[in-house]
């Protein structure tokens, strides 16, 4: 276990901190509200297990991190009330904020990779909330996550949608502990499926040398009910207590580095490529992150062809 992170003070934000995560009246409110209504309705234990079965085999092909970045060029997160920039630019903004604060290189790499699991959209389908286009339904790609298999907390964003979740009518899943044992530890929990869970599992499967603290940042950074509202303490282990400090330190960079100023990808890339080579085998993301990427690009070059209609 790494030592607790050195606190770096407040991140210089592009606007007042209380203006971030505005779920009341932002310019993107209608889009964001629809996203969470669908997410809350569909993200059940059964759905999580379905997606785990779909993506957990890690048996497709491979692409470099740079190729993955290119694939996210047009992806804008429909759950984010703060930014309409492509997701890859947000990831670079996060990494650069962490770098400027003097955190270690693996922490910077986490900033670069933390949202890359959204690349699942390349082979997703509408019925799974991964419509196959960068502007389609994204309710199984992004957004605040929660623990499935127990009561959804009222502190989550848009709590009025909680009752739409079928598991909240199932006595196995609608209590404080649900299907879990007290203090069983976060490693034994199931989370609403999205980019966080996928990226965490993919990196573990491929034996990255990013420390566990960094992997926790990737897996839990969207679980705002935990790190922001102090929910799920009854399920935490002692190890989770230590990891929480790291997730909180990461969160301020994820949130407050969002700005309209666009990073220079070409200028910054050589620096980050060296860190990628250090912590990821062969500098690539193997096993499942490409999934017919080349074929999709080829089909997209033909008139009337679309990513969403491609099934291979």
TrEMBL record:
Protein name per the record: Inositol oxygenase
Binding site residues for substrate: 21, 77-79, 118, 143-144, 221-222
Pathway: Polyol metabolism; myo-inositol degradation into D-glucuronate; D-glucuronate from myo-inositol: step 1/1
Organism annotation: Peronospora belbahrii
Disordered: annotated segments: 1-20
Top-level EC class as recorded in UniProt: oxidoreductase
GO BP of this protein: inositol catabolic process
Lineage of origin: Eukaryota, Sar, Stramenopiles, Oomycota, Peronosporomycetes
EC numbers on record: 1.13.99.1
Family statement drawn from the similarity comment of this UniProt entry: Belongs to the myo-inositol oxygenase family.
Pfam families in the record: MIOX
Top-level taxon of origin: Eukaryota
Protein's cellular compartments: Cytoplasm
Catalytic activity: myo-inositol + O2 = D-glucuronate + H2O + H(+)
Cofactor: Fe cation
Cellular component GO terms, alphabetical: cytoplasm
Binding site for Fe cation: 90, 114-115, 195, 221, 254
One example GO MF annotation: inositol oxygenase activity
InterPro entries on file: Inositol_oxygenase
Note accompanying the cofactor annotation: Binds 2 iron ions per subunit.
Keywords: Cytoplasm, Iron, Metal-binding, Oxidoreductase
């Amino acid at each position: 276990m790494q030592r607790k992170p050195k606190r770096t003070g407040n991140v210089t934000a592009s606007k007042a901190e209380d203006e971030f995560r505005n779920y009341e009246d932002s310019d993107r409110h209608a889009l964001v509200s629809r996203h969470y209504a669908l997410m809350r309705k569909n993200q059940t234990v059964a759905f999580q297990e379905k997606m785990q079965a779909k993506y957990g085999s890690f048996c497709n092909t491979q692409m470099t991190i740079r190729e993955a970045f290119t694939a996210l060029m047009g992806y804008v997160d429909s759950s984010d009330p703060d930014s309409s920039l492509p997701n890859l630019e947000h990831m670079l903004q996060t990494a650069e904020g962490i770098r400027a604060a003097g955190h270690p290189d693996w922490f910077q790499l986490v900033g670069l990779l933390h949202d890359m699991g959204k690349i699942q959209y390349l082979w997703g389908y509408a019925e799974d909330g991964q419509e196959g286009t960068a502007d389609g339904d994204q309710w199984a790609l992004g957004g605040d996550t929660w623990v499935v298999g127990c009561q959804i907390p009222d502190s989550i964003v848009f709590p009025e949608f909680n009752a739409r979740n079928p598991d909240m009518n199932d006595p196995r899943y609608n209590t404080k502990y649900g299907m879990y044992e007290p203090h069983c530890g976060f490693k034994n929990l199931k989370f609403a499926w999205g980019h966080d869970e996928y990226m965490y599992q993919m990196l573990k499967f491929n034996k990255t040398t990013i420390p566990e603290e960094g992997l926790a940042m990737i897996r839990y950074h969207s679980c705002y009910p935990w790190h922001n509202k102090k929910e799920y303490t009854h399920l935490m282990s002692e190890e989770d207590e230590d990891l929480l400090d790291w997730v909180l330190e990461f969160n301020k960079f994820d949130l407050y580095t969002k700005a309209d100023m666009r990073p220079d990808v070409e200028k910054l890339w050589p620096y980050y490529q060296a860190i990628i080579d250090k912590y990821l085998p062969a500098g690539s993301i193997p096993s499942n992150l490409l999934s017919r990427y080349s074929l999709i690009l080829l089909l997209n070059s033909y008139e009337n062809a679309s990513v969403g209609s491609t099934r291979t």
